[in-house]
Design brief:
Blueprint lengths: L2 H4 L6 E8 L3 H12 L3 E2 L3 E3 L4 E7 L5 E7 L7 H6 L4 E7 L3 H10 L3 E2 L4 E3 L5 E7 L5 E5 L7 E3 L18 E3 L1
Parallel strand pairs: 1-5, 6-10
Antiparallel strand pairs: 1-6, 2-4, 3-4, 4-5, 7-9, 8-9, 9-10, 11-12
């Protein structure tokens, strides 16, 4: 099936490649040393999805989302324990979650769960889909969202933009 058949409004936009990590500090160190990821967003604690996430960009412009378990019940903990699906998902921003979900279903993907809000996207809905080949796709209903990368992050902790000057961040 051609991509244009899957994208009714042509607004499917690549957002990130999701990577599972045991903790965000480990993910930053690994992606920085192996892939040259040097620009990072703040860390996000997402109680709804039971994960911590952080986005990083490599010199080539690729965006990675590091996803770490928030609790023992986190949906990513089992994959990490079994060492499967570490390169976990590909994510796209869409104008209509419902419209693109229908296209994915028509292409043989099934929804893993109902849409839920995501802290990293201003509580806009996200939804995950999988197919029989093991592909995992995340749709994010936030077509104009841009990650805010900060030049230098503190060495530890979750923080907000409240204590940072506008000049210290870069919107891409």
């Amino acid at each position: 099936m051609l991509a244009e058949n899957l994208l009714p409004d042509g607004r499917l936009r690549f957002d990130h490649l999701g990577v599972l990590v045991p903790d965000l500090a480990h993910g930053r160190q690994l992606l920085s040393s192996v892939l040259g990821v040097s620009c990072w967003t703040v860390e996000f604690e997402d109680p709804v999805n039971d994960v911590f996430v952080q986005f990083g960009r490599c010199p080539g412009g690729m965006c990675y989302e590091t996803v770490a378990p928030r609790s023992a019940l986190s949906p990513v903990r089992n994959a990490l324990k079994r060492r499967v699906n570490i390169f976990n998902h590909v994510a796209y921003r869409v104008a209509s979650l419902v419209g693109h979900a229908a296209c994915l279903r028509a292409a043989g993907f099934g929804a893993i769960a109902d849409p839920v809000p995501a802290v990293a996207y201003d509580n806009r809905p996200i939804q995950f889909f999988a197919n029989a080949d093991g592909w995992l796709v995340e749709l994010i209903e936030a077509p104009e969202h841009r990650h805010v990368y900060i030049a230098e992050l503190p060495s530890a902790g979750v923080f907000s933009f409240g204590g940072h000057d506008v000049e210290q961040r870069q919107r891409l």
